[in-house]
Amino acid sequence: MIELEDLTKRYGDKLAVDGLSFTVRPGTVTGFLGPNGAGKSTTMRMVLGLDAPTRGDVRIEGKHYGELREPLNSIGALLEAKGVHGGRRAYDHLLCLAQSNGIPERRVGEVLEMVGLQEVARKRPKGFSLGMGQRLGIAAALLGDPRILMFDEPVNGLDPEGIHWIRNLMQQLAREGRTVFVSSHLMSEMAQTAEHLVVIGQGKLLADTSMSQFIAENSRTHVRVRTPEPERMRDVLVEAGLRPVTGGDGALEVDGGEAPRIGELAAANGVVLHELSTQRASLEEAFMRLTAQSVEYHAYAPGADGTQLPQTPPGAAPPPGGAAPPPQPGQAPPAWGEDWKRGR
Amino acid sequence: MNHTTRVLKSEWTKVRSVHSTVWTLATALIVSVGLGALICAVTASTFDDMSTGDRLTFDATYTSFAGMGLGQLAMIAFGVLIVSAEYSTGMIRNSLAAVPQRGTFLWCKVLIAGVLVLVVGMLTSFCAFFLGQALLGSHGVGIGDPGVLRAVVGGGLYMALIAMFAVGITFVLRSPLLAFAILMPFFFLISNILGNVEATKKVGQYLPDQAGTTVMAVVPETLDRPYGPWEGLLIMVAWTAAALVAGFIVLKKRDA
Ligand SMILES: Nc1ncnc2c1ncn2[C@@H]1O[C@H](COP(=O)(O)OP(=O)(O)O)[C@@H](O)[C@H]1O
Ligand SMILES: [Mg+2]
């Protein structure tokens, strides 16, 4: 368990983290979501006692980080900057960390095998690919077999296989009853991994909720209606007490409407329909709406409906096919990946 | 196993597992001994051309240490790299996440580095002395002559202290570039000028290396300082201690 209480960090004039209070609980993957510059990495550095909070407090299993004698046995972390000496063999990198925490040397071989790096154990990491470096960082986090794991943007820049591997690993760790705290700036990523969600923007807490609740509250559904007689159809819908709005391509969008009912209304009034479909707004959109006021640097692009939407961050590759299913059982369709793509 | 012992083991693994340790320390030894030998050989062959005054105050021991002025730069490089690599690679965050007791972390690193540079420093000093004296032939001195053993042991201590001074300064500066840019020209050129030019000598002779080298001289006229050899070394010890304490304070106070 990680408990944050009014955690605040100021760098000069910049309030990087602003009064964060929340608890990261064991047994689930907690996603830590926020746009770039929201303060995720700063928060994680404060959890590890690397940066001193300006105000507030953070505790690991009830203790301050500095009180831990063998911290790697309680919490393992993969930070944003990988923190590996390129000239020190992978094995020695892990060995020096293990020794400082009284972890037996055989554990080094074990974690190297767990992350699939046993073949390059005696190689120097300066020649490692991004994915291998990430695996080495994760091996270090797993060294002490800790009850808490914290990963800062672990899938950044990884290929689909690497992403898939990390996702499965985090879910497995959570299933073993561990506390898993993972940050990302991509909603789509979190939707596939996390059961609980903490959203921050400009250092402030925006949401602390279960993923399913976040989806229920934030995924707006609407019915899209395309017809050669939009004016008539609009009148019909308004008369029926619905509120249609005209979308970017001239189609009508009906918030909260039901497709069967709208179809029946059209038939009853003899309006020809070219399209009648239910649309789910993507989670990515929901996330952007939530953080819209708190994005540090907007990169505006005109949205399809003429409104302005922040652009999807450049790293936002669509999730790979055959990705892990969402963690919530019995809540299968619609697939998040599809949903997300439609939102583009 | 006790906490400090574990951190010491970890720091030993760190220092032995990178190439830079071997090449900096080997360079320090080879350059100091090699250049010292060269200068001794040249001195031996031109000894008869020296003035009577110079011959009377000739310091055979100090002459065999002539390579250390350059060799010490490799010692400084070792001290800079052992600390700055933590910062330039980001390893410091892993290190402090593993050992949040920053004092333990720093002093264990200092102790491991200190023992290593002391061993290499002594080896350098004794090798430079014996090889140099052999090349000086009849103009050389023996290790049993008055003040000589003190100077040779002092040479080893000097090499160790200069490296540890660099360790302390680099804990303050963090950046390898900055540490090299300040320490290298300073000890290669600037302090020599400040310590020997009449206008600045009064203050300059108290700089760490200027004070420290007095322990390596056997003939007092060699350096002409207002303090004795051990006092000179003590001044250097004080500088080194101050640099390490400054490094400790910065490490303790600043975000990693
Ligand atoms: N060491 C630092 N000094 C000054 N400003 C910093 C420092 N670290 C982070 N910041 C600033 O704090 C804010 C939060 O940064 P960060 O925690 O890295 O965000 P995130 O990880 O969510 O992208 C940013 O505006 C960043 O520029
Ligand atoms: Mg970050």
UniProtKB/TrEMBL annotation, chain A:
Domain of life: Bacteria
InterPro entries referenced in this protein's UniProt entry, alphabetically: AAA+_ATPase, ABC_transporter-like_ATP-bd, P-loop_NTPase
Record PANTHER family: ABC TRANSPORTER, ATP-BINDING PROTEIN
PROSITE patterns attached to this UniProt entry: ABC_TRANSPORTER_2
Protein name: ATP-binding cassette domain-containing protein
Domain ABC transporter: 2-227
Matching Gene3D superfamilies: P-loop containing nucleotide triphosphate hydrolases (3.40.50.300)
Region (Disordered): 302-344
Organism: Streptomyces smyrnaeus
Amino acid composition bias (Pro residues), ranges on this chain: 311-332
Family: Belongs to the ABC transporter superfamily.
GO molecular function, one term: ATP binding
Protein's UniProt keywords contain Protease: no
Pfam families membership: ABC_tran
Keywords: ATP-binding, Nucleotide-binding, Transport
UniProt key word ATP-binding: yes
UniProtKB/TrEMBL annotation, chain B:
UniProt KW Aminoacyl-tRNA synthetase keyword: no
Record field: transmembrane: 21-44, 64-85, 106-131, 151-172, 177-195, 233-251
UniProt-recorded name of the protein: ABC transporter permease subunit
Top-level taxon of origin: Bacteria
Keyword match Cell division: no
Keyword entries, A-Z: Membrane, Transmembrane, Transmembrane helix
